Amino acid sequence: RRGEMAKSTQLIDNEVFQAYATYTAIVLLKMMLMSLVTAYFRITRKAFVNPEDTASFGKGESAKKYLRTDPDVERVRRGHLNDLENIVPFVGIGLLYALSGPELSTALLHFRIFTGARILHTFAYLIPLPQPGRGLSWAVGYSVTFSMAYKVLKTAWLL
Question: Is the pTM here over 0.90, yes or no?
Answer without folding.
Answer: no
